[in-house]
Each structure stands twice: as C-alpha cells, then as structure tokens.
Amino acid sequence: MSDDTTPTRRVLWTAGDAAAATGGRTAQGWAATGVTIDSRKVAPGDLFVAIQGPNFDGHAFVGSALAAGAAAALVSHVPDGLPADAPLLRVEGDTLDAMAALGAAARARCTDARMVGVTGSVGKTGTKETLRHVLSAQGPTYATEGSLNNHWGVPLSLARLPADSRYGVFELGMNHAGELGPLSRQVRPDVAVVTTIEAAHLEFFASVDAIADAKAEIFEGLNPNGVAVLNRDNPQYGRLAAAARAHGLTHVWGFGGHDDSEARLLDVSLHATCSAVTALIRGERIQYCLSLPGKHWVMNSLAVLLAAKALGADVATAARSLSTLQPVKGRGTRKRIHLAQGAFTLIDESYNASPAAMLATLEVLGKLDPGAGGRRIAVLGDMRELGERADALHAALAEPLHAAHVDAVYACGPHMRALFDRLPAAMRGAWTETSVELAPIVTAAAKGGDVVMVKGSLGSRTGLIVEALAALESRADTRRTDTASTPTTTTTTAQPQAANGQRG
To answer: Is the pLDDT of residue 78 over 60?
Structure first.
C-alpha cells in the first residue's frame, strides 16, 4: 500500500478550455492542475505562463518549467531549443493579456459563486486570510495566495479559481491612482471590503483624501446589487460612502464602534494572546473568541463577519471559526527560540509596515510580559513610500514605543535614523543602514526571557533578521548535541583534572 499522502490536484484547465479562453492554439491534449508565472515554483501539472517582465522574459524559462513538470506553457512565440512536440499554448499578443483572459473565463464559469474583494491601507492580507478561514468551513473557498494583488497577481489569482468554488476572496492593492478600478472590474465582486484608510503610499499621493479616492475605485467593479463594507470609525468613511453611492450602490454597511454601524462592537477584552468580543452583526448579538491579539484584529473581525453576512454565510458559524484563526507568516507569527541560557519569544511582523500598522503592533507588544530578567525589544526597519513626511512619521513612533514599555530599540534604514536619534539613550540598542548589518547585532543581544518583535516594510528586508534570530535555536541545538556527544572519562581525580584544564 502506498504511503503517499499528497493530495491529488483536480484539473483546472484542459487544453481545449484554455485555448478557447485565450484564442490560442495548441496541438496537445494536456490538462493543467494549476497556473504559475514563476518557473522556480512550478509544481507538476502547472500551466506556466511566460510573462514579459521588466527584468526577465518568461519565454527564456519555458524549457526549465517543462522540465520541472509543467503540463504546458502559455507563450506568444516558440522559444529556441524546445522539442517540436513541446506542449505549448501559443497566443497572439501579450501573454499577460492571455492570462487575464483565462481569469475572465474562470470568473465567468463560477456563476453561482459569491466573490469578495478586499482592499485598504492596512489589514488587507490579514482580512483576506480571515475570510478564507471562516468561509472554508461553510463551502469550497478560494482565496488569493500571499499578496498577489497587483496587475499580475489578480489575473493570475483569477486564472487559478476552481470552477466549483462557492466563495472567492481576492485581495486588491494599489500604490497609484487608477490601478484598483481595472482589478475590481476583473474580479467583479459581490462584496467590497475597505479595511481602513491611513497614511500609506504618501510618496504617490498628495493627501489621505486622495488615498481614499483611489481605494474607492474598488466600487467600479462591484455588483450593482452588492455590498460595500466600510470602516465606520475611520475619518474617511463619509468620503468612501459617498463614492459608493455615486457608483449606484445602495447597500453601504459600516463596521466599528459607531452606533450606526451594521457590525457594531459592543464590548471587547484585549489579552496578550487573544481577544473576547461581543458584537451586534445586523441585529444579531454575537459573542466570540478571536485567537489573534490586538484591537486591529478585532476591527478586522467585524469586517469579516459583516462581509460573511453579505455573502449569505452563517454569521454565528463564522464567529466560532475565529477562535482557531492562525497568523500569516510575517504578520504576527510567534515562536519560542530556545537558547542554552533560556528561551525568548520572537514575533515576526516583517512583511509590511505603515504608521498605523506600527502603532497596532506596538500596542500588542506592550501587553506581552517578558520572562524573568527579560526585556521588550523592538527591531524596526524603514516604513516605505511615505514621501516627504517619512522622517517625521518615523520619529513619531518614539512615544508609542515608550507607551508600550519597550526597553530597547534596534533599527535599520535611513528613515529609522530619525526615530533612533529621538529616543532616550537608555532605549537605544543600535542603528545601522541595512538589515544585513543589524542582524548580527540583534542576535548577539537577544537572551532568555526577552520578547523580540521585528517589523518593517518588505523592502527594508527585516525578514533577514527574523531568520537570523530563528537560527539561534539551531545553533543552540548543535552546541547541546556537541556537548552531549563529547566523550568523558570518569576517574577518582576527575574534578581536580577539570579544574586545572588537564584530561587523563
């Protein structure tokens, strides 16, 4: 009997269906169980789409993709060096357009599925993953992998949408005006969630109002009978609600503590590892345990329950699912790192950062008690795309760090220098230009009992510091193994020999 427990992937695209969707030509009777644009991540059975990117042309990697087990490759021309019988789907024009056509066909065949699009300045991925979690308990659910939320990621995600999906959850992102509308029109969501509007991407926008206007583009693709789910407590609520109604939407639902919220927070008890929440969801009183800590997660959970209601899912069942929610890598995962002298807690928030996200994370850090002799340590990388206000917004973190009772701050990046210089001397751990330089300093400083939180924008590469801290446990294991395997000789003079450094 085989012990292979790898799940069998179902056919996503037959050669005929893919050719019909793209207007392409193929002579092979292949069938694909997945779609990818990265030859390094090809899984057996994938359709590899050769995208012409700014730095690389995917056509150069068709051969390696097929060698890795790709069922076929979508191309605009036949790359050199391929055998005559290579399984290719050849299209006229841009392969990105062809992939978008695949996505459009996948969306069109899901006639009974309910779709939700998620955007916002912060909390997009966490909210998307929470929706995936609660909806999966109620029917076949597909959601965007990772943060594939741009002009490549959204059509790729749609092309991966299984035909039998009951729910689809798509993250939609932007950092310039005019980007979100086309993505929303591709997804055609029944529900649009805007988590919040904050000072993010200020490098590309003149004001927070302008950011709200760009996020409001999500309404362009929303089903006319769909629901806009908005943060009722956010100062931009009125602007977003007006934009929704300007697009002909009559169902605008708010979430938050405001009395007029359709998902209203009645009571919350915040703890170091979870939250106890009581809320009123469209008139239904719900009490639930949220397994992730922080007020920001409470707000996200209200948006999720309201979106679930709008999608026709059972709200009480969705609320119960929140007790088993797990954090996403780089967004709050915790790990105990064991050293020879004890263990410390590592909190990985390295995937992204903005002023609002920093404040939320520091609030959570402040509720965590270090072990005996331990410290609260914040390891911070630059927040990107903040424009002319970058230094001031970084320096403004000094007070929240103090309020969270952080003992030491280690920072990297040119903008974090503005914060570091503002800190009292007792809080200054170290500052370096890059995360590569900071990593060995932080690993040398970490000790048993500490709580170490690492956060920064993806471009600041603070994930390298997380990896270096996690590797300390492997080194400790190696040292323990080496010590345990060192041969010893027991004699009546063992203690004196050890004392003077000799061994008999």
So the answer is: yes
pLDDT value of position 227: 98
Strand 114-119 and strand 141-143: pairing?
A: unpaired
Element counts in the chain: helices (H) and strands (E):
17, 21
C-alpha dihedral sign at 71, 77, 81, 84: positive
The most distant pair of C-alpha atoms in the chain lies apart, rounded to whole Å, by 92
Q: Could you name the CATH architecture of 333-482?
A: Alpha-Beta Complex (3.90)
Q: What is the mean pLDDT of residues 469-491?
A: 56
Higher pLDDT, 53 or 333: 333
Give CA 50 to chain center in angstroms. Answer: 25
d(CA 502, CA 504): 7
**CA–CA gap between residue 383 and residue 87 (Å, rounded):** 45
Q: Please give the single-letter amino acid code of residue 455.
A: K
Predicted TM-score of the model (pTM): 0.85
For the segment 311-364, what is each residue's pLDDT rounded down to a tens digit? 999 999 999 999 999 988 888 899 999 998 899 999 999 988 999 999 999 999
The CATH superfamily of 110-324 is: Mur-like, catalytic domain (3.40.1190.10)
Across residues 376-394, what is the average pLDDT?
A: 94
Burial, 305: exposed, middle or buried (Cβ in 10 Å; 0-12, 13-18, 19+)? buried
The CA distances from residue 255 to 28, 237, 260, 460, in Å, are 51, 10, 9, 33
Helix or strand holding residue 346 (H, E): strand 342-349
Domain range list for the chain = 13-96, 110-324, 333-482
Q: What whole-number distance in Å separates Cα of residue 489 and Cα of residue 487?
A: 7
**d(C-alpha 124, C-alpha 110), whole Å:** 24
- Within 10 angstroms of residue 225's Cβ, the number of other Cβ atoms is 10
Q: Tell me which residue of 412, 387, 395 sits closest to 466, measured CA to CA.
A: 412
Q: Which of 3-17, 138-152, 397-411, 426-440 has the lowest mean pLDDT?
A: 3-17
The structure tokens listed for 249 are 């939407």
Query: Residue 58 and residue 213: Cα distance in Å, rounded?
Result: 35
Indicate the residue type of 349: E
CATH topology for the 13-96 domain: 3.40.1390
Q: In whole angstroms, give the CA distance from residue 112 to residue 115.
A: 10
